[in-house]
Design goal:
Layout lengths: L4 E2 L5 E3 L5 E4 L2 E4 L14 E2 L2 E2 L13 E2 L12 E5 L10 E6 L4 E8 L6 E3 L23 E2 L7 E2 L6 E6 L5 E12 L9 E11 L2 H4 L4 E4 L7 H7 L7 E5 L7 E5 L21 E3 L1 E6 L2 E2 L13 E3 L10 H13 L5 E3 L10 E3 L15 E5 L4 E4 L1 H4 L9
Parallel strand pairs: 10-17, 11-16
Antiparallel strand pairs: 1-5, 2-23, 3-4, 6-7, 8-19, 9-10, 9-15, 12-15, 13-14, 14-15, 15-16, 18-19, 20-23, 21-22, 21-26, 24-25, 26-27
Family: Belongs to the peptidase A1 family.
Keywords: Aspartyl protease, Glycoprotein, Hydrolase, Protease
Protein name: Peptidase A1 domain-containing protein
Length: 390
């Protein structure tokens, strides 16, 4: 069985480290984002699930990153992706919940496992893209009653959830079960599934345009795990992003035929609840950064997180990466960045034609533990600043 993630944008998060953002005019300091133009080849990393132990709960199974032999006989849910990183900072898909269906725009997030939408009873929820979910208007809605397998409310009546994210925003509410539909592109019929009916949100979750989050990670509350456990889809899913200035994309819940040029990297499912990969080296202009491979291996290691806007590097890797990029820039002028609150590293003179960036900026390669290399064109590691006048 396999859990496959196909990404055409590289979302790699290195925990607890300094980061660098780069722009199409140059490099800026305090966050590195990797963006992909649709004219370039895609990065594809597959995630696999090893055969589960029948004596354990489904959430304790082990996903690996390795080659796929998935049987695609089961139907899959093909779904459109909307929004983009330049404007929104995330990608969303559409889910329909209830009978009759109520529509929601949800951020696709491989770094968390709970799918939730604002509930009509929520008094501490922001104004989002769609109306709040109204359980009373759904003839198929059922609350999840308190049991030994969940956290319960103070009255011991309902199961509840609570999540806190890296930027310190929070979401909490009760768990419900209802019919979830995946849109008219889906071959998968609507399915009953558990989701969060949100009663409070703070921080970025409160102010964002999207309604909620679709958690694609591992765990008892994962909608993907739930569908796999029911036997209605193969244990895989794919994400394909439009890239810089393009937006949108596609998502598939269930099996697909892996492309012939797929880059494979193994993951250690024991060390982390996240989709981690074994990054060993970064090459700039064909030369490896002078780093010990253990620099990428702290805490949870290197993980894929589709809900994170930027990629984060360990400080030592950031400094080395920045220095290596700057050594390769000979005709560009360093300038101040657009945000006075950050000491960004930016350059002018590269032009605005994405296809011509490789004439000014070097190629970068990510090297994994199995020796596989992923080539990043300049638009994969540069962040374009729109409407910036000098």
């Amino acid at each position: 069985m396999a859990r496959l993630i196909q990404l055409t944008i590289l979302f790699i998060q290195f925990y607890y480290y300094y980061y660098i953002t780069t722009t199409a005019h140059g490099v800026s300091s305090n966050g590195t984002t990797f963006l992909l133009d649709s004219s370039r080849s895609a990065m594809i990393l597959p995630l696999f699930l090893s055969p589960p132990n029948p004596c354990t709960k489904f959430s304790s199974t082990r996903r690996l990153l390795q080659r796929s032999n998935a049987n695609n006989a089961l139907p899959n849910a093909r779904m459109r992706l909307h929004d983009d990183l330049l404007i929104n900072g995330y990608y969303t898909t559409r889910l329909w919940i209830g009978t009759p269906p109520q529509r929601f725009a949800l951020i696709v997030d491989t770094g968390s496992s709970v799918t939730y939408v604002p509930c009509s009873s929520c008094e501490q929820c922001g104004r989002h893209q769609d109306p709040k979910f109204q359980p009373d208007l759904s003839s198929t809605y059922q609350s999840v009653k308190c049991n030994i397998d969940c956290n319960c409310d103070d009255e011991k009546q309902q199961c509840v959830y609570e999540r806190q994210y890296a930027e310190m925003s929070t979401s909490s509410g009760v768990l419900g079960e209802d019919i979830i539909s995946f849109g008219n592109l889906s071959a998968l019929a609507p399915q009953r599934a558990v989701f969060g009916c949100e009663n409070m949100e703070t921080g970025d979750l409160y102010s964002q345009h999207a309604d909620g989050i679709m958690g694609l990670g591992r765990g008892d509350l994962s909608i993907v795990d739930h569908l796999v456990d029911k036997g209605v889809i193969n244990d895989s899913f794919s994400l394909c992003y439009g890239g810089m200035g393009i937006g949108g994309g596609a998502m598939v819940l269930g099996g697909i035929s892996p492309p012939s040029n797929m880059v494979f990297s193994q993951s250690d499912p024991v060390r982390s609840p996240y989709y981690n990969i074994d990054l060993k080296e970064i090459h700039v202009a064909g030369k490896p950064l002078p780093l010990n491979p253990t620099v990428f291996d702290g805490k949870h290691g290197t993980i894929l997180d589709s809900g994170t806007t930027y990629a984060y590097l360990p400080e030592a890797a950031f400094v080395s990466f920045k220095d290596a990029i700057m050594k390769e820039l000979h005709s560009l002028k360093p300038i101040r960045g657009p945000d006075p609150n950050y000491n960004d590293i930016c350059f002018s003179g590269a032009g605005s034609d994405i296809s011509q960036l490789s004439s000014s900026f070097p190629a970068v390669e990510m090297v994994f533990g199995n020796g596989q290399k992923l080539l990043l064109s300049p638009e994969n590691y540069l962040f374009r600043v729109s409407n910036w006048f000098f």
